[in-house]
Structure formats: structure tokens, C-alpha cells
Design brief:
A: alpha/beta, Rossmann fold, six-stranded mixed beta sheet, 29% strand, B: mainly alpha
């Protein structure tokens, strides 16, 4: 497996605050990595470093390039959608397509046109961005991105502010129009439950540090949720759960590297949801 | 590189429609002025007829040439003033608006360097806007001449003899274009400063750009009693105006002494580009401009907006 992204000891400091603190990880080709963290965890700063939008300390290689020094070369093979990278409000749909076509060597106008035909934006070619709804702007942005033959797609809260129908459609289109084995996606979002079934890898980040980095497959092996009550709960508690919460009078405990045989005797076992695991990990890190 | 510049400059023209709207609006108002004036004069047919008859008979070709060129030169001065104000607002907005509307990260997500982007904005301010304004000047002059020709013909005069033959259009246009482009180079340090402030300012770029231009010469004079900044800033802007005033004075004195108004009788002959490019002040200004533009590139590249 070739690594598209290699980070070794990457840090970024703002004044006395370490937004990104000595982070190391790899992302392999063809993976869909979810980067999850609370607000201010350093996600956006890390993404900006990956995209060459900010300088940093440590070693970072993206597609074999130094992102900050070789940003132009990098941008030929990387695309990103960020909630902060909004499309300019004054430009018309056709002007935007013309511009991207003229500056981006890997952009296929035909593919963009085909994708746009499936959306409501198709009939609005001469409208300015400011005249389109937020959902339409996102459809347009995704159509442009999907028409760029890029090796890595970075999505930073791409569906923020969209309603549930557009969000579902966005990820469905992302998989059908964009993703194949040749491409890699790095995505951050608050709505973990909407993307956990498309991820192949997951990384939790808190206060600038990685607190979990795992494939989704091994996540199911490494963590288990036990639902139990009464005396059996007491016994389970002694086995050192990393988190515990109450649902309908029952205790739900989360175990890391569990002894499944012993726990199985104490109650029902489930694979924890990413959201629950995330909350447990963040609280664990704070304690 | 060149393909990207063309795409980027076209982008500037899409975004800033005032680049076209301003000179065209001024040109239309001026053309309308010509039309109204001639319409009002038409009410005094008798006097006008005598005037046209007199103009047709009195004076030789060079007299008429001087008068016609002088009249044609007037709209270009007005459009140039409008254009200068336009360039100030354009350059202050060019790197500020993309941060204010948060589209900067979208632009930076494309394979275009920060230097290419800033250079496209500098080229637009220094050359593209003047070229568009020049086109508007030419159009305004032609419209005025056509309107006047129609009026002269209605009044029974010979328009070709009276205005088209004496007008030195090629010479006038060459001189106007050369003058506008050399003014862009001459004033380039201001353009560079405005672009830098536009990239740098968190808010109120106009105020931030204007304050040092006004305050630095005053403070320098007050504290040190010297006037380096005064000379650098004010002479650069005032000198061309003084020169223009001399040219204008020459035009208005033409009844007394036609020969001194050489600029107006053959504008292109009067332009001395060699001596302009030999001025050390020009090159010093271009270096200052390059420093500010480089600084604007660095601010756009290194500043983290989050």
C-alpha cells in the first residue's frame, strides 16, 4: 500500500497555543479517512497544513510533495471543499466553470456538465452564486470537484448548514461520482453517524493530539459495548470500562481490548457507534 | 503562466464590472453633453451659420487642427480622472473582498500561485483598466465627431473639411495611450501600496491606505523638519498635474501664439518617451512598487485567516 500522506511530528503553534501538537500518521491510497474532533481540536489547522495553506513544523509529505513549498503542483492533484472555502458570490455558474477549466489541467468540462445535468443548477447557468440556495451551491461545488481528476479529496465539514436530504445525497453522490480505488478522501464532520458507514479509517483528534487512529475493521475488534445491569454491572465495572452511561436503567459500558468471553457472560455485547466511542475517548483524554 | 494570467485577468473583469461601467458612463455623459450643446446652438441658426461659414473660410489647416485636437483632448482628461479614482477603489478592493466574502480559500484550492493572483491584479490596475478607458476615450471622441458632423451637415457646412481633416486622430490616440500607460508606470508605487493594504487590512482599507500618505509627510516635516516623504508622495502626484496645466495653458494661449502649443497640434511628436524612461525617479518608483507587490504576495500566502 502506498501512502499518499505521511506526517511525522507535525506541529503548529499560534502564539502560546499548540493547535497541532506533534502529530504523526499515514493515509494510504484508496482509503476514506474520517478525521473527528471537537471544535478547536486542531482539525482545520491540520487540514490547512496538508493543503499547503499554512506553514508548520515537522515533516509532512502529501503525494510526495512538500505542501507549503509546492502548493501549485499539489493543487493539480488535490481538491478540497471546506465550509470556509465558499464559492465567490458574484460569479455566475458558467463563468465559474470557464475559470476552473482554464486554470486546472485535470478538470474535465464534459464530466462537470454531465454531473450538473443531474442537478437543479443545470437550468441556472447564468445565475450568480448569491442567487442559488446553499444546497445548489454545494451540488455545484461537488460537481466541479468530482470533474477534477484528483488523487486526494479533502472535505472539511462539507455538509454544514445543509438539510438532511442534501446531506444524504451529497455522500451518495460522493461515492458514486467521485470515489474509486485510485482516489483517496479525507473528511471531517460533526455528523459522524452519517459517514461512519462509508469510512475505511478513522482518526480522533483532541487538543492537537491524535487519541485514536484505526481502520474501521479493527475498531470493531478493539472496542466493545456491554449492556448490563445490577450485580453483573458491578462485576463488569471492575474490569475497567473506559466509559459508562445509563440507558433506560441499564448500564452501557465501553471496553477497550475486551475479554469477550468474560464480558459475554455479563450481558449483551455490541459494536459501539463511532459517536459513542468518540465521546468516551474525549472524556477519557480529559480525565 | 500566460494562459493563467489571461484567465485571472478575465476573472477580474467579471468581478469588477465598474472597469467597463465607469468610463462608458462618463463617455456617454460627455457625448450627451455634445448633443445637448449642439441642439441648443441649433436654436441660433443664423449666428451659427455665420460661425461655420467663418470657420470654413478663416484660418488655415493648422489653426483648425489645434482647435479640434484641443477639443478632442478634453474628454480624455475627464475619463482619465474617473479612471484614476476607479483604480484606487479597484486595487483597495482586489485582495480585501476575497477575504471578506471568504472565497479566498476557494481561489487558493486551485492550481494558481499567490504570486500569479497578485500579479494579475497589479496588471489589471496598471494596464487593463487604462486600456479599457482608452477604448472608451476613442469611442467618445468618435461619437462626438459624428454628432458634430451631422450637426454641421444640417447647418450646411463641410464636416470633412472642418473637423475630420484637421483632427490628428492617429497622433492624438498614440499620445493618449502612451501618456496613460506611462502614468500607470509613474504612479505604480501607489498601486503597489494599495494592493499591499488591500491584502493586509483587516477592515477599512481606504482609511488605512490614505492615512500614511497624508500623515507621514506631515510627521516627518514636524519632527525632522525634512521633506523626503513629501517630495516622494506629493511631487509624484502633483508634478504631472502641473505639466498638464502647462499643456492646458499652452492650448488656451493658442490665439496669441500658436507655435507653443506643439502638444496640441501634433500630440505624438510632443511625447518624449525616451526622456521619460531615462528618469531615475521612474525606476525608483517601480522598485518601490515591486516591494509592495511582493509584500502583498507574502501576506496572502502566509496569513492564516482562521
Amino acid at each position: 500500500m502506498t501512502n499518499l500522506v505521511t506526517a511525522r511530528g507535525v506541529s503548529k503553534q499560534f502564539g502560546r497555543v499548540r493547535a497541532v501538537d506533534d502529530i504523526s500518521f499515514d493515509i494510504g491510497k484508496g482509503r476514506i479517512m474520517g478525521l473527528i474532533g471537537p471544535n478547536g481540536a486542531g482539525k482545520t489547522t491540520l487540514l490547512k497544513a496538508l493543503l499547503g495553506l499554512t506553514d508548520y513544523d515537522g515533516e509532512l509529505s502529501v503525494l510526495g510533495l512538500d505542501p507549503f513549498k509546492q502548493r501549485k503542483e499539489l493543487m493539480r492533484n488535490i481538491c478540497f471543499i471546506a465550509d470556509v472555502a465558499v464559492l465567490p458570490r458574484w460569479i455566475t455558474v458558467s463563468q465559474l466553470l470557464d475559470f476552473v477549466e482554464s486554470v486546472h489541467p485535470n478538470f474535465s468540462r464534459d464530466k462537470a456538465e454531465t454531473l450538473l445535468k443531474k442537478t437543479k443548477v443545470d437550468k441556472r447557468r447564468n445565475s450568480r452564486i448569491r442567487e442559488l440556495s446553499k444546497g445548489m451551491v454545494t451540488q455545484l461545488h461537488l460537481s466541479i470537484i468530482a470533474a477534477i481528476d484528483a488523487k486526494l479529496l479533502v472535505l472539511d465539514e462539507p455538509t454544514l448548514g445543509l438539510d438532511i436530504i442534501f446531506r444524504k445525497e451529497f455522500y451518495a453522490n460522493l461515492l458514486s461520482d467521485y470515489f474509486d480505488e485510485e482516489r483517496t478522501i479525507l473528511v471531517t464532520t460533526h455528523q459522524v453517524e452519517e459517514i461512519e458507514n462509508i469510512l475505511t479509517d478513522i482518526m480522533f483528534i483532541n487538543e492537537g493530539r491524535i487519541i485514536l487512529n484505526s481502520t474501521m475493521d479493527s475498531l470493531a475488534d478493539s472496542y466493545v459495548e456491554l449492556m448490563t445491569s445490577g450485580e453483573r454491572a458491578e462485576k463488569a465495572r471492575k474490569m475497567g470500562p473506559i466509559a459508562e452511561r445509563e440507558i433506560f436503567g441499564k448500564s452501557v459500558m465501553l471496553f477497550e481490548r475486551p475479554d469477550r468471553d468474560r464480558l459475554g457472560d455479563l450481558g449483551e455485547l455490541h459494536t459501539p457507534s463511532v459517536a459513542d466511542l468518540f465521546v468516551a475517548k474525549i472524556k477519557g483524554a480529559a480525565a | 503562466m500566460i494562459a493563467n494570467q489571461i484567465a485571472l485577468i478575465r476573472r477580474e473583469l467579471w468581478e469588477h464590472r465598474s472597469i467597463f461601467v465607469t468610463p462608458i458612463a462618463i463617455g456617454l455623459i460627455l457625448s450627451l453633453g455634445v448633443l445637448v450643446t449642439e441642439g441648443m446652438l441649433a436654436a441660433h441658426t443664423a449666428e451659427v451659420n455665420i460661425g461655420i461659414a467663418a470657420a470654413s473660410n478663416v484660418g488655415d489647416e493648422s489653426h483648425r487642427s489645434t482647435i479640434i485636437n484641443g477639443l478632442l483632448f478634453a474628454p480624455s482628461v475627464i475619463i482619465f480622472i474617473g479612471m484614476s479614482i476607479l483604480v484606487v477603489f479597484y486595487s483597495l478592493d482586489s485582495l480585501y473582498a476575497e477575504r471578506k466574502d471568504k472565497s479566498i480559500l476557494f481561489w487558493r484550492s486551485l492550481p494558481v500561485t499567490d504570486a500569479e493572483t497578485v500579479i494579475s491584479k497589479a496588471l489589471t490596475g496598471a494596464f487593463v483598466i487604462p486600456l479599457v478607458s482608452f477604448a472608451a476615450i476613442v469611442a467618445t471622441q468618435l461619437i462626438s465627431m459624428i454628432l458634430t458632423s451631422i450637426w454641421i451637415m444640417i447647418e450646411g457646412g463641410n464636416a470633412i473639411h472642418l473637423i475630420w481633416a484637421p483632427a490628428s486622430l492617429a497622433s492624438l490616440w498614440a499620445a493618449t495611450l502612451a501618456g496613460m500607460l506611462s502614468m500607470s508606470l509613474w504612479l505604480a508605487p501607489f498601486l503597489g501600496w494599495f494592493l499591499f493594504v488591500s491584502a493586509f487590512a483587516k477592515r477599512m482599507p481606504l482609511l488605512l491606505a490614505a492615512l500614511p500618505i497624508i500623515m507621514l509627510p506631515m510627521l516627518e516635516n514636524w519632527i525632522f523638519g525634512s521633506r523626503v516623504f513629501f517630495d516622494a508622495i506629493f511631487l509624484r502626484t502633483v508634478e504631472p498635474i502641473l505639466e498638464a496645466k502647462e499643456a492646458a495653458a499652452a492650448t488656451f494661449e493658442l490665439s496669441e501664439n500658436l507655435h507653443i502649443s506643439s502638444f496640441i497640434s501634433d500630440p505624438w511628436q510632443a511625447i518624449n518617451l525616451g526622456s521619460f524612461f531615462a528618469k531615475p525617479d521612474l525606476w525608483a518608483g517601480l522598485i518601490v512598487s515591486a516591494v509592495f507587490i511582493t509584500a502583498a504576495v507574502y501576506v496572502r500566502r502566509y496569513r492564516d485567516e482562521s
